[in-house]
């Protein structure tokens, strides 16, 4: 059997990624497939942490644009990520994967609080840890939370699941000449304003030397290919 190239990964799944082709909520078929694929990677011996977004339910910026107080709106966005985390936990447990949800906002009847040392212990015990509620602070995104948690738990890489197989020179849906970058530096992403993640998240990864891999989560088997070292998506590194 092939050997994984990573010991510990942090996988960031956006709320939209869980939505499938719908325009709201979670597509159970998508969460089931994702759970199965995460389980396969776990079986290979890779320790897996997840950060899940909330954009399929609420986004703070969107609610604020409609007139809501931004901090309240961001609290709603963070709570949306908790719901997604519970849905993913359920899907993972149905796939036979042991999991823990840890929230950056105290919500003890529902899940554990995020405590770094405890999170690392869960990973060492081969549980998949799902980090919910982002960073726990308004005005941040779950991409920033993913970068932060990846650095905190000493993941080898932050893997960002998207609907395209990497970062392109232009939007491949509108420009036939668009080509995929295999590798980018953090500064190229920042200088060219390439849509990988927000600048806060990129800068944290750059300063801590944490590589980011962008890949297409809609292609079955892509996560396994990535973990086995295949040339999928785009890697952002020094
Ligand atoms: N959010 C926040 N602080 C964080 C992470 C998230 O306030 O540290 C809120 C913010 O309102 C955001 C929402 O939670 O819009 C959902 O997260 P995000 O938009 O990152 O989700 P995704 O786009 O990945 O689905």
Describe what is shown at a glance.
With 238 residues, this protein is α/β, with parallel strands linked by helices. The chain has one domain: Acetylglutamate kinase-like (Carbamate kinase), CATH 3.40.1160. 39% of the residues lie in helices and 19% in strands.
Characterise the protein shown here:
It is a single chain. The chain is α/β, with parallel strands linked by helices and 238 residues long. It has a single domain (8-237), classed as 3-Layer(aba) Sandwich (Carbamate kinase), CATH 3.40.1160. It has 9 helices and 11 strands. The strands form 2 sheets. A 9-stranded mixed sheet has the order 4-3-5-2-1-6-10-11-9, sandwiched between helices. A two-stranded antiparallel sheet has the order 7-8. α2 packs across α4 (70-94) and α6 (142-152) runs parallel beside α8. Residues 14-16, 53-55, 59-61, 73-74, 77-78, 80-81, 134-135, 137-138, 140-145 line the site of uridine-5'-diphosphate. Uridine-5'-diphosphate binds at residues 14-16, 53-55, 59-61, 73-74, 77-78, 80-81, 134-135, 137-138, 140-145. Residues 8-216 form the Aspartate/glutamate/uridylate kinase domain. One of its GO terms (biological process) is UDP biosynthetic process. ATP binds at residues 12-15, 55, 59, 162, 168, 171. UMP binds at residues 54, 74, 135-142.
What's the structural blueprint in terms of helices and strands?
Layout: E1 8-13, H1 15-19, H2 28-43, E2 47-52, H3 60-65, H4 70-94, E3 99-103, E4 112-113, H5 116-124, E5 128-132, H6 142-152, E6 157-162, E7 167-168, E8 180-181, E9 183-185, H7 186-191, H8 199-208, E10 212-216, H9 222-227, E11 234-237
Parallel strand pairs: 1-2, 1-6, 2-5, 3-4, 3-5, 6-10, 9-11
Antiparallel strand pairs: 7-8, 10-11
Bound molecules: uridine-5'-diphosphate.
Residues 14-16, 53-55, 59-61, 73-74, 77-78, 80-81, 134-135, 137-138, 140-145 line the site of uridine-5'-diphosphate.
């Amino acid at each position: 059997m092939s050997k994984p190239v990573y010991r510990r990964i942090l996988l960031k799944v956006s709320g939209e990624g869980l939505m499938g082709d719908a325009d709201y909520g979670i597509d159970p078929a998508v969460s089931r497939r994702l759970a199965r694929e995460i389980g396969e990677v776990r079986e290979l011996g890779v320790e897996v942490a997840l950060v899940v977004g909330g954009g399929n339910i609420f986004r703070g910026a969107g609610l604020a644009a409609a007139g809501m107080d931004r901090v309240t709106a961001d609290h709603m966005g963070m709570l949306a990520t908790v719901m997604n985390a519970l849905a993913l936990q359920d899907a993972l447990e149905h796939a036979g994967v042991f999991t823990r949800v840890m929230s950056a906002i105290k919500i003890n009847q529902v899940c554990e609080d995020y405590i770094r040392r405890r999170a690392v212990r869960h990973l060492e015990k081969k549980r998949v840890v799902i980090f919910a509620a982002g960073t726990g602070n308004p005005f941040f995104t779950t991409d920033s939370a993913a970068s932060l948690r990846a650095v905190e738990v000493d993941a080898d890489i932050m893997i960002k699941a998207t609907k395209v197989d990497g970062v392109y020179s232009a939007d491949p849906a509108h420009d036939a000449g668009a080509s995929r970058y295999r590798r980018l530096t953090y500064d190229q992403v920042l200088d060219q304003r390439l849509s990988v993640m927000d600048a806060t998240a990129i800068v944290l990864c750059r300063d801590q030397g944490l590589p980011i891999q962008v890949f297409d989560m809609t292609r079955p088997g892509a996560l396994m290919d990535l973990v086995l070292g295949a040339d999928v998506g785009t890697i952002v590194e020094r």
